[in-house]
Amino acid sequence: MVEPLIVIEVVHAAVDRQVLLSVQVPQGSTLLAALEASSIKEHFAGLDLAACPLGIFGKQVSDPGQYVVQAGDRIEIYRPLLADPKEVRRLRAAKAAESRKREQ
């Protein structure tokens, strides 16, 4: 018996470009199996899926090997952060405070 296929999307945005792929996978596929079927790695040299956080429609998936994709899901491959947003805000606030002190 042939397994029914579902359609999902896989998206990744690098610094210089983004790719959105529409992929048919067997119903019951895990997130990781769907990524392998998408061949997204061929579009981005050096993309390490094991090191990248993964999500569905903006919500991070903690165990992509167990998550079963549903028809219409959009799998998102997130880039690692270059800087911690909290640290950037802290530094900006410290710089603004120092600037105010100099003006007084």
UniProtKB/TrEMBL annotation:
Pfam families recorded: Ub-RnfH
Database matches in HAMAP family: UPF0125_RnfH
UniProt family annotation: Belongs to the UPF0125 (RnfH) family.
Protein name: UPF0125 protein M5G25_00415
